[in-house]
Amino acid sequence: MNKLLIANRGEIAIRIMRTASRMGITTVAIKTALEPAAPYLATATEIYDNTAFTTAVPVFLDVDRIIAIAQEVGADAIHPGYGYLSESAYFAQKCIDQNITFVGPAPDAIYKMGNKTIAKRIARKIGIPMVDGSEGNISDADQAIKIAEKIGYPVIIKAASGGGGRGMRIVRKPEDMERNFNVASNESRKAFNDPSVFIEKYIENPKHIEIQVLGDTHGNVVHLGERECSIQRKSQKLLEEAPSSALDAKLREEIAGAAVELAKAVKYFSAGTVEFLLDADKKFYFMEMNTRIQVEHPVTETVTGIDLVEQQIKVARGEKLAFKQSDIKMKGWAIECRINSEDVQSGFVPSTGRIEKLEYPSSKHVRIDSGVTEGTTITTGFDSMIFKLIVSGENRKDAIENCKKALDELWITGIKTTLPFFRMLLRNEDFVKGNFSTSFVENKLDNFVLADKNEEALAAWIATKLFFEEHFSDDSNLDYEKGKDLGPWLLNRRIGQF
Amino acid sequence: MNMMNIEKLIAVSSSGKDFEFEMPLKDKIVIQGEEYDIKLYYTEESGLYLVWNGKKYPVEIVKSKQNKYEILFNSISYSFTIETPFSLQRMKVLKVNKPSVGNISVKAPMPGKIVDIICQKGSKVSRGEPLLILEAMKMENEILSPIDGTVLSVSVSKDSTVMKDDILVEIEEKKG
Is the pLDDT higher at B7 or at A432? Predict the structure, then answer.
């Protein structure tokens, strides 16, 4: 592998290119018309200018275009990152057909695990526990209602080709079925180009536990422990940890063992994630397998010391894994906070604007995987996740303390982000005790930000100050012309109007 | 506005809390009975920030119109109206006399496309019930009713594109 085309953007493109460069591989990033000055371009050895191509489909989803670009730049490998074409068996096969190395698993494994119905059949065959549900895809809301009556409400509708929470809806009563069925199906069609959905019993208040697996093309599969991903909202993960305080060594072995078995059953190689639900009785159920590198992979890297992208590249080159299961040691604790451009005080709606100031915390416990810089404009055209704050510690308590400190040091202005949410969450008693499930954010939190009386008083003083300066501005103490004192911010053209 | 005779200003938060400040405003604040120095700074490096009790806090003025301000303080949004003792008195009187029912405009929280309309004119809706679905950032977002009431009008149609703060639905609050 000499030249790697990155069929992705944002933080993951940067993260992949860093490792690839360290391994002496030339990297190529694709410049698009939507963000021609994006920070990920600066990390690449070469930039392919695709700005002239403005099609309805983003280039990162355009199989033929990506292959054509790879051929034009002479790339012998493509890394798809996450999202986009990362779980397209068709794309992986196309790469192989064109003699380009696809950095990821075999098309057959992507297809089998990507299709949730087939994945369940395989998992059931090898005896992995799972929840009741439709045996295959369902065609309409009526059929969904029939199945729901059989397995009992609540049920969850899921996209057959889904992931990342898109195309998923929980239904608690028959009259809500049709609307939710349509929403899930529409979302699924838009996000994955496949409207098929299935339904299954919805486990109330489970934990979301996932196992990182890693396989090579010689039949070896190991696991790199679990990630705790229960802190989510509308099935969108917000915070992840490794390890999980919900597992003991025995349960970890059981769940991880099941994940490795499943991976072996589809001759899996490269990095993959097997997702499970863990109910209140510590029974676990297979949910799905994600055949890509995941957003939250850094927490696993932090506790294992293994660079997953490096392993993906080595496996893609046909190398054997350099370690056995017994060589993998987990050390310490890691927490990842997803900093999204969202207004948490208005129901986590996307926040757009220009990032004015951005200062990351500096600590040996902190890793930042970012796709933005000061001056980056956030639009609604892309995913709202702008960077990830990954914090480590010797144990969970230590990691939480380090994370609180890092969040306090993080300075970001110009857009609203999930930062204040995490400042609140890391101080929440139940979170600190490990007492939470996937419904925690939506059901157990009254406030999504840290309510601080002192800070409100300070903000009140600022508002009063603004009013006072505006109405008392007899120019005795202000010099707008020279932009001194209060001038620059009072005259700030960016201030919105109600 | 001639404010030379005004002795104090009151910042009324959206949650109804009053914060009083003596005029002319000084770089001081009393918090829990203790007086602190407080100061706003603007530098090229950090932008606008406030220093209180030895700590720097980022400050952003999100919106300002007449006496209304939305301040993003340490990444948290606070909204205030600034009142004089006289206007505060008048506001409180108006509040008492105003009936507790009213019409609420549900606005688009972000730009996007209306992919589905669930409610219609005359629908009885309860707080938290989805009114319509707005697609933005590849996610379908349910726009929920903020109150119990009756839909007076739906101002958008399916597949229409909306800008942030466009009025989507008007709801008459349920009495009682």
Answer: A432
Question: Residue B137's pLDDT band (boundaries 50, 70, 90)?
Answer: confident
> A132-201 — its CATH code?
3.30.1490.20
Final residue in a domain of this structure, among B69, B97, B125:
B97
- Which entry of A65, A227, A292, A396 is annotated as an active-site residue? A292
End-to-end CA distance of chain B: 40
Q: Does A211 touch chain B (CB under 8 A)?
A: no
Mean of the pLDDT values across residues A306-323?
A: 98
Reply yes or no: is the peptide bond before residue A350 cis, omega within 30 of 0: no
Contacts of A417 in chain B (CB under 8 A): 75
3-class SS of residue A463 = helix
Quick one: average pLDDT of A243-248?
A: 97
Question: Does the CB of A342 have a partner CB in chain B at under 8 Å?
Answer: no
Answer yes or no: A172 catalytic: no
Average predicted confidence (pLDDT) for chain B: 87
pLDDT digits (tens, 9 = 90+) for B24-79: 899 999 999 999 999 999 988 888 999 999 999 999 999 888 899 999 999 999 99
Q: In 3D, which of A85, A37, A46 has the Cα closest to residue A63?
A: A85
Last residue of a domain, one of B39, B67, B97: B97
Write down the architecture of domain A207-443 according to CATH: 2-Layer Sandwich (3.30)
Q: CB of A384 within 8 Å of any CB in chain B? A: yes
Closest CB to B82 among A349, A352, A463: A463
- For residue A486, pLDDT over 80 is answered with no
Domain contains B2: no
User: Do B71 and A498 make contact, defined as CB atoms within 8 angstroms?
Assistant: no
Which residues does B139 contact at the CB level (< 8 Å), separation at least 6? A166, A187
**Quick check: A413 and B138 CB within 8 A?**
no
Architecture of domain A3-103 in this structure? 3-Layer(aba) Sandwich (3.40)
Q: Out of A416, A423, A492, whose CB is closest to B72? A: A416
Closest of A487, A488, A423 to residue A449, by C-alpha: A423
**Cβ contact, residue pair A464, B21, below 8 Å:** yes
B3 lies in some domain: no
User: In terms of pTM, does the model score above 0.80?
Assistant: yes
Pair A412, A378: CB distance under 8 Å: no
